[in-house]
Structure to design on (470 residues):
């Protein structure tokens, strides 16, 4: 855009001074034309004859030489005069160019806005739907508190592995006794037992959260999971303790494993040593920690944490898309406005220079008159040099033609078009108004788009959202 405007107001080579007109050096011309020599030689020959009434060939040569310089000066003057007038005429071209550019800038920005409206519609609808779903979930289950933050499965698995490692490390040596694979076999058996103890306890703890539900069937299900965990924690750890007693009594590893469950069923609380009871206590303790971790992995109310997380994801997606849209629109808005303002400044400067050329044309006209006068003066001077030398060398009277003066025909330049100055300045105001209107339109489109992209404050809130619809 700016390149096109610069080409319209390109800097033409004009000089509103005497430099437009060729210099007339009378001394040099006299030497080049050999006026002194010709005057003396022709005077000695009494040429031209005394009765001659017209210029001789030497005088004609002087006039032709000056006329050649005069014609060159007038051609230069005419070329510069055309430049002056064209510069003023370009103002209207620049206005039309800015009109086109302003319309294009508004259209391109509107197209970009429309594209982002379509792109953001999906994430905004998803955010509104997620918020409405959480609102209905709260109303249905009569929840007013915010959901507990989900710590993430990485932390859950990390805690479970730590518990498994602790329990397995304690039982590894014991389980290696009588195992045909030695310490490695004992450690693998301890890991398996610990994995079952910790894993199932955590799972039962996670499912036991249903006791918080308002539905009585789900409450009973949650209670069943709690009771099931209690039974499981006691049973598996007593079974492991009976297995330990078998190994300490010298029973083979396989036989001890096979007899642990029958002993548990026959005499569940009969253990041979305090170490076995400590093993039971440790196992139940670790099971309790795993159960509690499963209980607190997510929000205590089943399903509430998932609903809250979906809303947060939808909100994050919306915020990211909104940020990208506003950043892109802001960049294009600023770029378009900058280009329009540059165009306005370019036209303003170009028209100001064009107006200045009007005054330059007046100056050039003054220099023209001075140049034309010089042509007459220099012609008379060169004629006098030739004639004086001729008279001094003659033996007969000088011809009457030597009294004859020469003056070039008058030259009247075209009048300066002052009216174009007012028209050019009016075009400056038109361009400024066009640019201002385009800038306002782009800002309005941006603001309208920004408001349309937004959802309600409640949906956008990062913390606990207030009750109420969208």
């Amino acid at each position: 855009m700016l390149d096109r405007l610069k080409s319209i107001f390109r800097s033409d080579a004009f000089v509103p001074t005497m430099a437009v007109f060729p210099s007339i050096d009378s001394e040099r011309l006299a030497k080049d034309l050999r006026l002194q020599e010709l005057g003396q030689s022709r005077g000695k020959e009494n040429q031209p004859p005394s009765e001659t009434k017209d210029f001789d060939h030497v005088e004609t040569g002087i006039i032709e030489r000056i006329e050649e310089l005069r014609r060159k000066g007038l051609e230069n003057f005419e070329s510069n005069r055309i430049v002056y007038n064209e510069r003023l005429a370009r103002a209207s071209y620049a206005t039309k160019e800015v009109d086109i550019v302003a319309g294009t800038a508004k259209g391109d920005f509107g197209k970009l806005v429309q594209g982002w409206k379509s792109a953001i519609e999906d994430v905004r609808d998803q955010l509104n739907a997620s918020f409405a779903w959480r609102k209905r979930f709260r109303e249905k289950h009569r929840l007013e508190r915010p959901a507990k933050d989900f710590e993430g499965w990485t932390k859950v698995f990390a805690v479970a592995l730590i518990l498994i490692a602790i329990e397995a490390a304690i039982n590894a040596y014991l389980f290696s006794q009588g195992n045909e694979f030695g310490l490695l076999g004992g450690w693998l058996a301890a890991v398996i037992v610990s994995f079952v103890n910790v894993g199932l306890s955590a799972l039962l703890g996670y499912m036991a959260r249903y006791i918080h539900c308002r539905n009585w069937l789900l409450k009973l299900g949650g209670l069943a999971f709690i009771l099931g965990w209690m039974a499981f924690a006691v049973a598996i750890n007593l079974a492991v303790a009976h297995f330990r007693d078998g190994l300490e009594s010298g029973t083979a590893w396989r036989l001890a494993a096979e007899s642990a469950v029958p002993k548990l069923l026959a005499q569940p609380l009969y253990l041979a040593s305090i170490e076995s009871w400590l093993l039971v206590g440790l196992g139940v303790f670790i099971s309790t920690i795993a159960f509690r971790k499963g209980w607190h992995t997510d929000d205590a109310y089943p399903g509430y944490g998932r609903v809250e997380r979906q809303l947060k994801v939808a909100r994050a997606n919306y915020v990211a898309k909104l940020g990208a849209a506003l950043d892109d629109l802001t960049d294009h808005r600023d770029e378009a406005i900058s280009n329009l303002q540059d165009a306005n400044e370019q036209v303003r400067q170009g028209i100001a220079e064009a107006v200045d050329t009007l005054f330059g044309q007046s100056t050039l006209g003054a220099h023209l008159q001075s140049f034309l006068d010089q042509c007459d003066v220099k012609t008379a001077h060169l004629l006098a040099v030739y004639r004086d030398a001729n008279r001094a060398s003659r033996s007969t009277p000088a011809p009457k033609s030597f009294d004859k003066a020469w003056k070039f025909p008058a030259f009247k330049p075209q009048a300066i078009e002052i009216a174009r100055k007012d028209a050019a300045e009016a075009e400056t105001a038109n361009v400024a108004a066009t640019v201002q209107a385009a800038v306002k339109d782009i800002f309005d489109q941006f603001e309208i788009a920004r408001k349309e992209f937004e959802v309600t404050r409640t949906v956008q809130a990062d913390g606990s959202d207030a009750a109420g619809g969208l």
